[in-house]
């Protein structure tokens, strides 16, 4: 009798463990809903009009700056193991854009990402990645979903190559945002990633046609040279794109499977891409992560989730939607 009870307990425990693993890699999403009395076009226009130059300039940076680096991150034992298979999607070629955007080695696929959350205006960074739908952005999960208040943002808009209020490649309004349950339900920094799908413009053109796109990867080297781009508010008040370069390493933080880099971009750069094999002529490369968080007692180190199988599958799910 007791042997039978023990077997049942063991099976139940195993089932709970597997569900915990899978749930982190599942995702949640929301779609933009056109209010009654408005057309799709008028609603998109209203979101663009909401983001006046003044509102953009005053938007707060959405930071994950943790007070103390000692014993802060939660240890999560039931994390999926990363398989060794390396995957990549080749970046798209820049085919459009203004002369201003073509005059620099900075990527046209990177820009400022504005949103409203908890009745306040915020800004992060984001990037266009190669996708079948030609409408996909990547940013940090905390830039679309606030774990503390358990609430989604709204009025999301992306401005590629934003420079001192100018919008050389237009304004692109969201149609769907998604993040992994590892972030939304557990505040697990290994899953601090979000997908944003944007609407086509008034001519039915896709954002990739204007900005080009970064390649997407999984299971690439943790020890590698990267270019990191974003809009930190500490540099020119976030009005221009900034970058840092260096060699990443596997993070030694307890319970975190991500990577770290000697880099001090700071608030406003959250969601900005970490790019390997960046080509300054083509202004593209392979995205291997996004800016996630830092510590106030380690201000010169940036941390990012590792793009393994879970994030690759997340990307694959939405690239055709």
From TrEMBL:
Molecular function (Gene Ontology), one example: serine-type endopeptidase activity
Signal peptide: 1-20
Pfam families: Trypsin_2
Listed SUPFAM superfamilies: Trypsin-like serine proteases
Annotated Peptidase S1 domain residues: 94-321
GO biological process assignments: proteolysis
Keywords in alphabetical order: Signal
Keyword check for rRNA-binding: no
Family classification: Belongs to the peptidase S1 family.
Identification of the protein by name: Peptidase S1 domain-containing protein
Organism (species): Rotaria socialis
């Amino acid at each position: 009798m007791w042997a039978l009870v023990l077997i049942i307990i063991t099976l139940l425990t195993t089932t709970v463990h597997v569900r915990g693993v899978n749930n982190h890699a599942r995702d949640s999403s929301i779609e933009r809903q056109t209010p009654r009395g408005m057309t799709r076009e008028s609603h998109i226009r209203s979101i663009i009009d909401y983001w006046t130059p003044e509102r953009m300039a005053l938007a707060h940076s959405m930071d994950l700056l943790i007070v103390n680096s000692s014993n802060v991150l939660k240890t999560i034992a039931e994390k999926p193991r990363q398989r060794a298979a390396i995957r990549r999607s080749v970046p798209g070629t820049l085919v459009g854009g203004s002369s201003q955007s073509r005059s620099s080695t900075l990527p046209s696929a990177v820009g400022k990402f504005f949103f409203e959350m908890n009745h306040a205006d915020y800004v992060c960074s984001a990037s266009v990645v190669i996708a079948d739908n030609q409408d996909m952005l990547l940013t940090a999960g905390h830039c679309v979903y606030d774990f503390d208040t358990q609430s989604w943002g709204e009025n999301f808009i992306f401005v590629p190559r934003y420079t001192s209020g100018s919008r050389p490649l237009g304004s692109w309004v969201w149609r769907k945002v998604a993040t992994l349950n590892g972030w939304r339900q557990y505040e697990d920094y290994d899953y601090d990633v979000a997908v944003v799908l944007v609407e086509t413009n008034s001519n039915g053109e896709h954002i990739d046609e204007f900005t080009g796109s970064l390649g997407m990867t999984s299971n690439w080297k943790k020890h590698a040279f990267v270019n990191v781009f974003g809009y930190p508010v500490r540099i020119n008040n976030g009005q221009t794109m900034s970058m840092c370069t260096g060699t990443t390493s596997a993070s030694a933080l307890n319970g975190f499977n991500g990577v770290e880099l000697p880099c001090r971009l700071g608030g406003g750069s959250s969601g900005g891409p970490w790019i390997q094999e960046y080509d300054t002529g083509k202004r593209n490369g392979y995205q291997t992560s996004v800016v996630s968080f830092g510590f106030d007692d380690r201000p010169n180190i940036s941390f990012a989730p590792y793009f393994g199988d879970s994030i690759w599958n997340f990307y694959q799910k939405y690239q055709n939607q």
